[in-house]
Structure formats: structure tokens, C-alpha cells
Amino acid sequence: MIPDLVLLGNLLVDDVVFADGRTRMGEAGGAMLYAALAASLWGVRAGCVSLQGDDYPLAALDALRARGVALDGVHPLHRNGVRTWLLYESAIRRVIHRLGCPTHEAVSPAPAHVPAAWRTARAFHLAPMPFDTQAALVRAIRAWESPERPAFVSLDPHLPITPDTVARHRTLLAEVDAFFPSDDEMLLPDATRDPAGVLASLDPAEPGAPRRLRFVAWKRGARGGTLYDARAKRAHDWAPRATRVEDPTGAGDAFMAGFVSAQWESDDVERALRRGIVTASFAIEAWGADGLLAATPETVRARLASWAQEKVCS
Length: 314
Known about the structure:
By secondary structure, this protein is α/β, with parallel strands linked by helices. It contains nine helices and 13 strands. The strands form two sheets. It has a nine-stranded mixed beta sheet, sandwiched between helices. The chain has a four-stranded mixed beta sheet with strand order 3-2-6-7, with no helix packed on it.
């Protein structure tokens, strides 16, 4: 089976610490876990490409298989992987690798880890990984695609976007269709004052020239976010929506999966944002991946229908 969406990234073990003192230790994590579970809720055939540490909870992989997620691209690391502290402070989440772990590069997939049959997939999403690792994967994906059917490539950055790094990001974004930074990475000084202008400035295309980058979605958690549509040259602000907030981990990954899956079906930005918001709402209402594991295609579509009359963006 060739997946609709190939997810490339890390399988991490998370120790979560909230500002109010709540903790959860040894949680199965990694952006791919949340994104793959979220995509499966909308009928997307997802496949994961990663390196699996010996300490990664096997129950999480069994849950992915039960959802129909292909794991042919998950390769054994033959040692323990990366274990992280996820420290939530105010609106910012800090990610700190625990001592004694392999490097981030060592647990990140390379182009050779992608099964040959998957290289013609319609879409690829790159989870946060070192910049050079992501750049090598984007180059490989563009080399694999056919002119008749270019692949849709989305990227969630790991390298913060600052005045010193923005030029590097623009170079990579010239080969990407959608970019999903969060507050943790969006560190340009005018972003809060002029989000639309700052997101538009990330588009590397010259005026009148062909452009690849279509969407930049700045995910801001409880503050919603801003989506810039480079084709329409328009920004859309979206508001947050939730039934309950227990743990925000994985919400951005779920939002991405919902948004991208809707965008494939029709070019309707508000519809895609609504699906992203609905998907994220399931991720945040329980610890770790439990909210997405408890959700079903029927429950997510029911919530989507119940929120359908609400305007989600401006």
C-alpha cells in the first residue's frame, strides 16, 4: 500500500511537566504519533518513517497499526532513543533532551529510510527535525516526484525563525507547499504586531514569479492562530475552540493533519481550518495521545457538523 500521507520525524519518549506541578512521565510521543492518529480519523492512509528506540512504548505502535497506519518506514535504532522534558511555561513549551540520549540527527530519518514504493506518495509531512535533515528530505522528495503529479510537502520547523535564520528558512520554503510554525519557533520581532505581514514575508517567491509555498499557518495554541494564503495574498485569523483542555501536547500535529486532509478534498480555506480546529480539540482533551485514541471517525465528523455553522476565521 502506498500511503496518501508519508510522515517523517521522530518517535520520542516524553516526560511532561506543567507549570501547575502536574507531571506525566514516560509518555509515548513524537509528532508523528499524533499526526498519524489524527490523519486516520479522516480516512487518510498514513505511513510513518522514523527510527524507533528500544525504549519506545510498543503499545503506541500497536495503536497505530490498529488504525491502519503503515509502519514499513519505521526502522530499529538498536539502542534507546531520545527522551525529552516537555516543560510548559505560560504560553511557551520548552523541549529539552535528557542527558545520555543520542543526538537529534541520529534518531531522525534520512531519504534512504523511505520505502521505495512510498516515494510516489501524494503528500509528505516533515515533523520538527534538525534543519539540515529536513532540507535533505525535501530535496529527495522533489527529486522523486513526477512533473505530472507533484507531491504536496508540508513542514513543521525545529530551527527557530529569527532575523538570523529567516534567510535559511526562505530558501527551504521555496520547495515547500505548507509551513506550520508554532509560538515556540516564530521569533521574528514584529510577528505579534503584524502577523499577516510577517507571514507574507516568509514567501520566497519574487513578485510575478511562480511560487510553491501556498500556506503559512502560525499555530498559537490557546490564542488560535493566523494562516497566510500566499496564492490569494490574504491572511485568516482563527479562534481556538475546545470542549475541554487537559494536555496541549500534539494539538499542532493534529491541526496539521486535519487541515491538510481537508485541503486535498477541496480548495476551501475556512473548511480546512475548521477541520484542523476540530481535530486539535480531540488531541487536547486528554493526556498524551489518549484523546486521539478515544476519538473515532464518527465522533470527529459529528463534532465537525455541530461546529459547522460557527465562523472560525476572519
